[in-house]
Amino acid sequence: MSTLDAVTPPKPSSLPHDIVASLLVNLDSQADQLRAKKQGGLDLEGLLYFQRAANYIAAAQIFLHANGLLSEPLEVSHVKNRLLGHWGTCPGLNFVYAHTNLLISNHQEEENVPEFMFLTGPGHGAPAILATLFMEGSITRFYPEYPMSREGLEYFIRSFSMPGGFPSHVNAETPGALHEGGELGYGLAVAYGSVMDKPNHITVAVIGDGESETGPTATAWHAHKYIDPAESGAVIPILHANGYKIGERTITGAMDDLELACLFTGYGYQIHIVEYGSKSPEEASDHEHDVAVQYDMAVAMEWAYQEIQKIQSAARSGKPIVKPRWPMIVMRTPKGWTGPRKAEGKLVEGNWRAHQVPLPSAGAKGEEFDLLKSWLESYGPDELFHVHVDDSHSGAHNPADKARGIIDSKAVRIIPKDQERRMGMVNATYRDFKPLKTPSWKDYTHPIDEEISNMKAVGEYVAKVIELNPKEFRIFSPDEISSNKLDAAFKVTQRNFQWDPETANKGGRVIEMLSEHTLQGWLQGYTLTGRHGLFPSYESFLGIVQTMIEQYAKFIKMALETKWRGDVAGLTYIETSTLWRQEHNGYSHQNPGLIGSFISLPRNLARIYLPPDANTSVAVVDHCLRSKNNINLVIGSKNPTKSFLTPDEVSTSQYAK
Amino acid sequence: MSTLDAVTPPKPSSLPHDIVASLLVNLDSQADQLRAKKQGGLDLEGLLYFQRAANYIAAAQIFLHANGLLSEPLEVSHVKNRLLGHWGTCPGLNFVYAHTNLLISNHQEEENVPEFMFLTGPGHGAPAILATLFMEGSITRFYPEYPMSREGLEYFIRSFSMPGGFPSHVNAETPGALHEGGELGYGLAVAYGSVMDKPNHITVAVIGDGESETGPTATAWHAHKYIDPAESGAVIPILHANGYKIGERTITGAMDDLELACLFTGYGYQIHIVEYGSKSPEEASDHEHDVAVQYDMAVAMEWAYQEIQKIQSAARSGKPIVKPRWPMIVMRTPKGWTGPRKAEGKLVEGNWRAHQVPLPSAGAKGEEFDLLKSWLESYGPDELFHVHVDDSHSGAHNPADKARGIIDSKAVRIIPKDQERRMGMVNATYRDFKPLKTPSWKDYTHPIDEEISNMKAVGEYVAKVIELNPKEFRIFSPDEISSNKLDAAFKVTQRNFQWDPETANKGGRVIEMLSEHTLQGWLQGYTLTGRHGLFPSYESFLGIVQTMIEQYAKFIKMALETKWRGDVAGLTYIETSTLWRQEHNGYSHQNPGLIGSFISLPRNLARIYLPPDANTSVAVVDHCLRSKNNINLVIGSKNPTKSFLTPDEVSTSQYAK
Fold this sequence. Notes:
Chains A, B: One of its GO terms (molecular function) is aldehyde-lyase activity. The structure is a homodimer. The first copy, chain A, is of the alpha/beta class. The first copy, chain A, is built from 24 helices and 15 strands. Chain A has helices at residues 3-7, 17-21, 28-36, 44-63, 90-107, 126-135, 138-142, 150-159, 187-195, 215-220, 257-267, 286-316, 367-378, 381-384, 391-394, 399-403, 409-412, 454-468, 516-528, 539-542, 546-560, 594-599, 614-625, 647-652; strands spanning 115-120, 201-208, 234-240, 270-275, 327-332, 342-343, 346-347, 451-453, 473-477, 510-512, 532-538, 571-576, 606-609, 631-635, 640-642. In chain A, strand 6 (342-343) and strand 7 form a beta hairpin. In chain A, helix 3 (28-36) crosses helix 12 (286-316), helix 4 (44-63) crosses helix 6 (126-135) and helix 5 (90-107) runs parallel beside helix 6. The N and C termini of chain A lie far apart (66 Å).
């Protein structure tokens, strides 16, 4: 079985080939044109060198605790005792990172060129992300303890997944990261949240094919239907169909091109498939395949970029396209690409065996050690890493770039010249917070002898917040905004659903999708890029995203311990229809469990509020919306009751603090 | 805006119409043929009368506390004080129930005709399900306090959503039900679980278009890829795209036929769309539209049935179809169909206003009361319900059928003659439990001085359970069976993924899909229809389905309080990679929260086990797999340790009890 066989999914499906194939975007002629160009064509060398270096550093992090740059012949003693990390997804991530870098660089001289963010669904692929971040200088910028020197890089390699070093999953310590690794499925929704109300941002989101089996991802493919192209940026979703998860084929990996064409056309996208080996004869060498797929990916990324421009330009010139079909890319590259082909007679590259550590016994003399040695040497580390700072080739504009000279200039020249555009340093990912503008909450209180719904009172306050923050505040709710008595919001704004002509292209601040998972992902992406949101829901259904909230709390905990990250707004949840005060639903709608999760979290991160009346509710929600770096749970109530406390009494109570 | 406009989704999409339309299954000629037939054609009268009666009873349950059958002119005083229930989905559910009844009846004389089960995703539609269950005699059979008499039916109508009566959501008290209403999204997965290893069963699953926005549903559309047609039955999924949720258009409701054709073709289905008004001229009367859509649905159901037969016959004769494309139906019928067209100048039928109680002020004199009166009268209750048992028309075969005589025979004649085939009485839904065959657990223990992984020891025991129960036991796991050290299972069985030629059509007992939601749904459906399962997972990721587990616990609690329901096996979860003994993952993979959920549940329902060694682990898993009517959480451990207890010591400990 060759690598090619491994990439190609089981065939055939019984779909009518001629019909369905026409749904796929064909970019062959663009790839041919690019190949024919000499000057101004593809920086193929730059792409290949970048990936060689990034793949080397990724693999080295998993395996080496000494001799990280192979300054001397590899010995068993150089191999880590405990091999941790996931290799399988790494080369694909490096491939996408390289091509995103190239896209940014190709357009960096243009006016109003978007800023790019990078979101890794498979957080296990940290070795790849960390490698590219090191190469672009982001690691050294935020972690001077890893200087851009041979020693610094070796220390960086050794420290991976060791106490004090970077963890084996992407987390808040990772420059550019907006998403805690671990629990899979939310990357795509977070990506869409990150570009809402950021018209000049594009997030490239890599979705693993394992991850794509989760429900949260399966429904987040619809998320573009809530992106207004006039006011928001865009996502380039890239499904990384490398075919296998930890022990089995993946669903999308087992779907052929026709099935994928139908599925993602149905979700509303234009699809282009980039497939390793598809544009080169089967008997071609690995290198020829490697080259062909670079051309494919380069034209695919440029195509995606141009399609986004078309959709956005139309909407921004007042002639929005009805149901715009945003671009997406399906990427079929081998799992563990460039890694060991086989070990102990069994396929590794292009197989589930490449998922985690492909050579688990490499720490002892034997076949696997020999394979590791030749694998690492195959990248040519002596060509990639130099002893001295190589000023002459680096095109350096600043000190960090000079330092990059230890990495061969050919491997770093596709990295954007402007530091602020490198994806580990984009402001939006770590220091774009502006405080919410809030009215005086006392203006929204009521006389204590008036019967008023807590939620109704909060709704009037929230409507004012929407007015004061027309592009910085959103409400995410699973179809319950009116049922939750927050409908005062609709006096000043509306829903935002692009597939409905009644609410398309109108910039509504309320998103109602019946997917708590997607809402939570949007809220996280929106908040971590500096904005503010509110998530009201029935008490019993907010628990659906309990583990997501807990993962987010981990991200915030680590962000607080990460010096270079700025503040982000607190996430505020309001629960209604509580067990203790059922408004109209019965047993099937009762579940007060989420409060238990909040109680078990550290109190600087997670706060719980049970305001007893409308006046206190307004004060509490005001307090929560102004909070930072935490999560807030407010227990609401919908039915009218009299207030217990006057506004002044609330002011002096703990609730207003 | 007419009802027709409301049903038709926003147009257009930019998809190439000619190309995509060919993906849809066209059944026009079959419908025409059926219409042309006289004798042996469609029992149109029976279908329409059934739906009239069912819709009347559904609406009456929501509104009437007296005069339930309109024996006298409706008065304000007959209307309930508190109006509860969801009308919008009811007529669609009754439409599907009617056509499923007709399909069963049409085939009831054939040999080996499958048994049908009915699964309602939108549990809020209980008024519809309860109405049809009453009409077929299932309510009276299980609840003699509601006899088949005018008084019995009036009492049934009055009791809906009142203390002591049926709740407003489908739950364990509902005959035929396999799924707790409330939290949306799991119905489809439960339906697929219910037919695994039941080759002669078909579950008709209605999925609401609100529900279809959830992640769990979005990924469960892939569930058919784990159904081996040789060994298992089939699901007929029916997406009920009535266009609106509680306050907004739905995603699938806003997708046009082409988008839906692509999406569900991509998921792997053949799709036929049944649309109200599509086969009749726009200016046609309501009745003409109503008639046309009955022909469409009847041929659609027959088509689905025949397609299932083809796929199953091929597989069972040893020539399985590669990637079989199972049938599914998209059903566009108006929300609140046959309900009030407008109220207070605003559209109700075919709109979100029909979602819950369409005439909330009908309890006081005024327009809404008048609308309610004419609406209920429009069904002609005096024609539908009779005073005396009407033996002559009922074709009665047994006492329950005789009793059905109070409902006009035209309204009940499409109901299957054989009681056991009526969907509220099918054995598989409530009394099909057989105990698991288990080996002696002591045969799988180890000497106490041997270092052995708890999970490895359990794996050997589980392998034997698989051997002893070749069609009654399955393992559902999110891609971690080997990582969880249960790989001994692969000595006796394999994975079961029909999209991979390596594991297709081989009856494997292990399902690995990276969707905890789908696994949980499958396990529930499989267990509630009498079988047994095991769900191993990492500790941190099982919490993803915490609220599902809690909803399931509610179902079991009510099932135990429901006299006519038989036992079901306990659900057993094994958690590994715990926070306290991390095997190789870090902070991103740590979350011990699920145990807190189990602790808070009643102890007869939820049990937690922390076996300290391999011998105890085997005893505990044996105990759990033999348990009934509960949920079990076993905390596992993967690394080898010495046992503390000899098998005999384990026997006398609490663990073996």
